[in-house]
Amino acid sequence: MTMSHERPSDDDRLRRLLDRADISDVQLRYATGTDTRDWELFRSCFTDEVEIDFSEGFGQPVVRLTADEWVAGTAPRMESFTATQHMITNQVITFDDNDHATCIAYVRASHHSPNPTGDSDQTVYGYYTNRFERTRDGWRIAAVKLTAVWMTGNFGIFQTALTQAGVPTPAG
């Protein structure tokens, strides 16, 4: 235990800096994998089971599923858009212990899908609160929580794009 007057060793400080860099890299792989449709890269971000919480702003229930199920459900949804761009910034990482951390990060997720109903773009502004675990393969996301603070554009492109892709929507 480190007393308040004791300073962590240089090795401990270096380990924590490397952990922060690794966690940040996972967050960026999450965005890059989504936008490039590289589902293997996207899958590499998660523990084998993952909790998904998109309840704020989207009204979807919190679910726990395998990472493979999460990827299999995410891929057709994202591929139904002509393009997406997820920007993740202002990452604040806190550690519960040596093997568990939380990263809160701003997100701006833009979705583009030309359609006959109006605006072709929709953007979600908010933040992720992702819980991380250290695994034998490095840091991975064990829980994803998206909090949508506000949205702009045509929210209907989500349903239009999903319907065109043959993906069932929550309402249908």
From TrEMBL:
Transmembrane segments: none annotated. InterPro entries: NTF2-like_dom_sf, SnoaL-like. This is Nuclear transport factor 2 family protein. Residues 15-144 form the SnoaL-like domain. Pfam families: SnoaL_4 (PF13577).
